[in-house]
Write a structure and sequence with these properties.
By secondary structure, the protein is α+β, with helices and mostly antiparallel strands. About 45% of the residues lie in helices and about 15% in strands. The strands form 3 sheets. It has a 3-stranded antiparallel beta sheet, covered by helices on one side.
Length: about 240
């Protein structure tokens, strides 16, 4: 067998399966990335040990299953988490991911320091690590359901350890000062965020059909792909 890029279709890979000299070769297409194509090839050859897989063996199939059931933003969050998880657990078998190894991952991530473009240094928070462990838990849950395995899910930090920092609420005068320094579409979007409590992504996804002038409200697609109606208050 061999894996190579499709000569004409972007994002498509071809898998060649040879059957010796007496039978013609089979050519199977795979839409995705190279890692997924090679994982699919290993499954076709029976090289993936479903009873004792490596951490990365089933990731391509899990990614597809997750994208099919979740929103684009959720899939982006998953990919970011998997990047860190694969960097640490990529060399391990699933049966080796015991609680002690999970705690080692937590310790490593807590010691990680990120430097922003402006030079500000900050450490990874426990809330961020919990998001990554939730992605790991989703992967293990999917794998257990897919193959009938019984791998334990990771233990995350408790709620008391991951309390968000106290929110700083702007005074009305501060909000007015910000709006006075904005113009055009940007001012309109920030005004909606200030007066209606809308999130940035919610404002960015608005279109004219979501505005109800009769009831002075906006139809918003929020988290979990759920719709809600938000009344638009008049500025003070």
């Amino acid at each position: 067998m061999s894996v190579y890029k499709h000569p004409n279709r972007q994002g498509c890979w071809m898998i060649k399966i040879s059957h010796g000299r007496k039978a013609p070769a089979e050519y199977i297409s795979y839409d995705g990335d190279e890692d997924g194509a090679r994982s699919f090839e290993r499954q076709l050859r029976g090289q993936v040990n479903v009873l004792d897989p490596g951490f990365s063996d089933n990731l391509p199939e899990f990614r597809i299953a997750y994208r099919n059931k979740n929103s684009k933003s959720g899939s982006r969050s998953l990919e970011n988490s998997l990047r860190h998880l694969q960097e640490f657990f990529g060399g391990y078998k699933m049966h080796q991911m015991v609680p002690g190894l999970i705690e080692l991952y937590k310790a490593k991530r807590l010691s990680t320091v990120i430097v922003s473009k402006t030079g500000i240094r900050r450490q990874i928070t426990k809330r961020t690590i919990n998001i990554e462990l939730s992605a790991l838990s989703a992967y293990i849950t999917w794998m257990n359901g897919r193959w009938g395995s019984t791998y334990p899910r990771p233990k995350r930090f408790g709620k008391r350890e991951t309390k968000p920092p106290m929110m700083h609420v702007l005074a009305v005068s501060e909000i007015v000062a910000i709006l006075e320094n904005l113009s055009g579409d940007l001012r309109a979007m920030v005004s909606l965020m200030a007066m209606c409590g809308m999130r940035k992504n919610e404002v960015f996804n608005l279109s004219a059909r979501h505005i109800d002038l009769v009831s002075s409200s906006v139809l918003v697609l929020g988290k979990g792909s759920k719709w809600r109606r938000v009344p638009v208050s008049s500025p003070a």
